[in-house]
């Protein structure tokens, strides 16, 4: 029986979709069976980030309305055999096209067949948010080190206290710029974690490759040497129960282990 | 039969005592008789308006019966009800009184967008995050951390105080007076008292000066014995 995580933030554009795609991919790389649910109805883009947009036949609203069977709507990511699937959002309907019971029913139907179900939540705290948390066992809250993002995360933690899920929420701090955190111009990891009172699941550095890889439909975790990718891979390992130390925040970006190794290979 | 509604003069005016053992029908008819009598008696003199205090003894009058009572008075243009008192209160009311007169220990995180409403005094050990609001009917003693909005004397009591260090707060409010702390720098420490002064303006003092700031409160915490 799988576990469902909603990936949420309050504030828009902090990396919910990026995190969903990358954690999902990283879990599949670890051999777990994963289903990604895009609940950002009307603005779907999880399919694009995964490079699956051209394979969509049906969407989640079709399933909820009974126009398609769940198995017909699931889009398989061919890169991972039978491990990674996406249930796309609808594009031509508004957020009211779905209700909490329908989402809960779909998630319950997916659970026996998957190890992980990751629900990409829309920004905001309205119906779309309520739908996204309805079927979840736990929440992964994404924030950036910016005050406004942390405030919105705080709001979401408060709402999750009012609608408690089975498990306490987890926190991802995304888009960390090491030199800014080092010189104190943004809140640091400890400050944010302590302020929100939420257990830290992982940190992800800000990296241009996240944007270029998203554009190509190839999540950054697929690049073995990329530090943002490593952040997401570490998060996936923690989700399957491994204990992985937090990446170190340095002033200058040192060449990573992987960079050193590739260097060495090239020489040889 | 003894009258179920009896008129009595008090130093503050007129009181009508309603028999706590009589049935309502008798009370109402007896009351009408009484008011009719009074009307004819006062008709000869200059008509003057009288507001009566109603005393109901050991009987609790629910809202329905009260409005019935007030309806009777509305038939008499010069008579009205000033207030209804009795020797008993509902459980609900007594709970409210207990609530209002106790010091509540609050140890929680009030997050962005959340509001906490509490009657009575509060000893605050928790945290109010930016965007969180703590509204307290009585005084607030702050040992925790306030980064949001905090109000004592909510909604409109100006004799309440906030004691403690709230220099991180976005706003402090007492009754209807408020201050945005970003606009005004005040030195604060755990012995800071925020109160409303005689000019109805928020003011900042020290616990040592409580006796001058708020004598009533000072007596209540035992200042009389110590001082
Ligand atoms: N670690 C990162 N480094 C660099 N860019 C990032 C990182 N994470 C996210 N981004 C970029 O930030 C933008 C917003 O990310 P994303 O779409 O994942 O956010 P979102 O929270 O899903 O937004 P929305 O609220 O609109 O759904 C994207 O262009 C993405 O590529
Ligand atoms: Mg998104």
UniProtKB/TrEMBL annotation, chain A:
Signal peptide: none
GO annotation, cellular component aspect: cytoplasmic side of plasma membrane; cytosol
UniProt keyword Cell division present: yes
Superkingdom of the organism of origin: Bacteria
Binding site for ATP: 11-18
GO biological process terms held by the UniProt record: division septum assembly; negative regulation of cell division
Protein name, per record: Septum site-determining protein MinD
Organism: Lentilactobacillus otakiensis DSM 19908 = JCM 15040
TrEMBL record, chain B:
Residue span, Septum site-determining protein MinC N-terminal domain: 6-84
Gene Ontology biological-process annotations: cell morphogenesis; division septum assembly; regulation of cell septum assembly
Keywords: Cell cycle, Cell division, Septation
Pfam family, one: MinC_C
Domain of life: Bacteria
Domain Septum formation inhibitor MinC C-terminal: 105-196
Keyword Cell cycle annotated: yes
InterPro entries linked: CAP/MinC_C, MinC, MinC_C_sf, MinC_N_1, Septum_form_inhib_MinC_C
Keyword Transport: no
Record family assignment: Belongs to the MinC family.
Subunit structure comment from the entry: Interacts with MinD and FtsZ.
Name the record gives this protein: Septum site-determining protein minC
Species whose genome carries this gene: Lentilactobacillus otakiensis DSM 19908 = JCM 15040
Lineage: Bacteria, Bacillati, Bacillota, Bacilli, Lactobacillales
């Amino acid at each position: 029986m799988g576990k469902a995580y909603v990936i949420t933030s309050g504030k828009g554009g902090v990396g919910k979709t990026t995190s969903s795609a990358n954690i999902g991919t990283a879990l599949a790389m670890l051999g777990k069976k994963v289903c990604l649910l895009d609940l950002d109805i009307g603005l779907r883009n999880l399919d694009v980030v995964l490079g699956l947009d051209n394979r969509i036949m049906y969407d989640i609203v079709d399933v909820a309305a009974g126009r398609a069977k769940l198995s017909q709507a699931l889009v398989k990511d061919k890169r991972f055999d039978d491990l990674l699937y996406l249930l796309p959002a609808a594009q031509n309907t508004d957020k009211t096209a779905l209700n909490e019971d329908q989402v809960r029913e779909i998630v319950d139907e997916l659970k026996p067949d998957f190890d992980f179900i990751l629900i990409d939540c829309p920004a905001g705290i309205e119906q779309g948010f309520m739908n996204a948390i309805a079927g979840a066992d736990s929440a992964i809250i994404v924030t950036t080190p910016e005050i406004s993002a942390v405030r919105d995360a705080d709001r979401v933690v408060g709402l999750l206290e009012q609608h408690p899920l089975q498990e306490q929420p987890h926190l991802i701090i995304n888009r960390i710029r090491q030199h800014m955190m080092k010189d104190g111009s943004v809140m640091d990891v400890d400050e944010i974690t302590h302020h929100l009172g939420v257990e830290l699941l992982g940190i992800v550095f800000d990296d241009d490759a996240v944007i270029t890889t998203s554009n190509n439909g190839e999540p950054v975790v697929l690049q073995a040497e990329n530090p943002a990718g490593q952040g997401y891979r570490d998060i996936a390992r923690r989700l399957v129960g491994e204990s992985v130390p937090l990446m170190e925040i340095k002033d200058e970006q040192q060449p990573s282990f992987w960079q050193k190794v590739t260097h060495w290979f090239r020489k040889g | 039969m003894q009258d179920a509604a009896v008129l009595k003069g008090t130093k503050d005016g007129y009181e009508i005592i309603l028999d706590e053992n009589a049935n309502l029908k008798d009370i109402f008819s007896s009351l009408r008789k009484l008011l009719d009598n009074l009307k004819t008696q006062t008709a000869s003199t200059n008509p003057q308006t009288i507001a009566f205090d109603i005393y109901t003894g050991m009987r609790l009058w629910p809202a329905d019966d009260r409005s019935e009572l007030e309806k009777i008075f509305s038939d008499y243009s010069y008579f009205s009800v000033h207030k209804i008192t009795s020797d008993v209160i509902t459980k609900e009311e007594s709970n409210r009184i207990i609530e209002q007169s106790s010091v509540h220990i609050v140890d929680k995180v009030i997050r962005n967008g959340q509001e906490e409403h509490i009657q009575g005094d509060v000893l605050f050990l928790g945290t109010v995050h930016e965007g969180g609001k703590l509204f307290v009917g009585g005084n607030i003693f702050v040992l925790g951390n306030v980064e949001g909005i905090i109000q004592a004397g909510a909604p409109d009591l100006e004799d309440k105080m906030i004691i403690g260090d709230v220099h991180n707060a976005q706003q402090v409010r007492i009754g209807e007076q408020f201050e945005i702390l970003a606009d005004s720098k005040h030195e604060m420490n755990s012995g800071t008292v925020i109160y409303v002064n005689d000019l109805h303006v928020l003011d900042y003092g020290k616990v040592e000066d409580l006796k001058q700031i708020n004598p009533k409160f000072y007596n209540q915490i035992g200042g009389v014995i110590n001082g």
